[in-house]
Amino acid sequence: MLLSLSPARRGPMVTALGTAQTIGWASSYYIPAVLAVPMADSFGLSPVWVFGAFSMALVVSAMVGPWAGARIDRYGGRGVLMLSNLVFAAGLGGLAVAPDPVMMFAGWALIGLGMGMGLYEAAFATLAGIYGREARGPITGITLIAGFASTIGWPLSGVMLATWGWREACLGWALIHLAIALPLNALLPAGAAPAPRPAAPEPEAPPPPRGAMLLLAFVFAATWFNSTAMAAHLPGLLQAAGASTAMAIAAGALIGPAQVAARVLEFGLLRRFHPLVSARLAAAAHPVAAVGLVAFGGPAAYAFALLHGAGNGILTIAKGTLPLALFGAAGYGQRLGWLGAPARVMQAAAPLVFGAALTGWGLSAIWLTAGIGLAATAALLWLRRN
């Protein structure tokens, strides 16, 4: 049921939800980069096992996403998002006290449950329930804030790791969920009770065309594969192109600012256009950047990072705005859950698949992600506004 919210409350609510999203991303998606090695060492395992547990968490999130979206469609997002903070805290607390690898995997499974209930898809569905087709601006707003999740999360995890240890770092993130994110999500408008069933059944809106749904699911899966592959292997890829280690690291640091700058552009200039326009431009950015990297080698590392980061920043918004613009607000949350499920699975496979390609093919591995990006661009060109 669509809720109404005065424009005066829009800014504080978007800020609260965006901050809670920052905590959710920083304490789940971004902690393996800092904590995986010490976590694995404490159990006498290779870090591959910890990354495997993280991949399992992504699959769990894909499975729970449609259920969470349907609940948000029916009851509003506040309860689901608050529950996700409790689940995140339980999973992170479980990691903090895990005595063996089995319990470590169980902790990551709980974190995956929290990811399916509490990250972007759930937040986008919550905003669609409040603003309907006018949710594009608020969706962009929370991605602008949460775009700094790695900027905040990696250093904070590193400080807690250096000061106390990886277990205490997990416990610290659990407490942050309970002390900050949970109260922020509690500020969201309460979902209205389901409308009473009418005496005579009302005609239902036709379901979205299956072909359009499949095309959009493919686009999301393809772009999330590329995004995760680059997040895991960008320095190694740039070095394979001839960049020095220092240059590769410096170029990688441009990804975050490029994402945020592109989201500001989406919030301003590109907001005048249909989301399909910005999504097509964004999907084409990675293949164009790949051609430049192959053609010019190491000196093109900075341009590659800027183009890829900008495209990725806009595509993150498109995951929320495109289904809303194409199919409407009715049933949006559950639809977004189904559309995002293949993307989560591809996201889980991306580091392993692209890592193997980079090891075997060197710089030529970029043609894998470039081809996937071109296919996503073609699918978006095939889609029509109505």
From TrEMBL:
Please list the residue ranges annotated as the Major facilitator superfamily (MFS) profile domain: 13-386
Report TM segments: 46-68, 80-99, 105-130, 142-166, 172-192, 213-234, 240-260, 281-304, 310-329, 364-383
Quote the Pfam families the UniProt record gives: MFS_1 (PF07690)
Task: Give the GO molecular function terms.
Answer: transmembrane transporter activity
Keyword vocabulary terms for this entry: Membrane, Transmembrane, Transmembrane helix
Name the record gives this protein: Predicted arabinose efflux permease, MFS family
Q: What is the lineage of its organism?
A: Bacteria, Pseudomonadati, Pseudomonadota, Alphaproteobacteria, Rhodobacterales
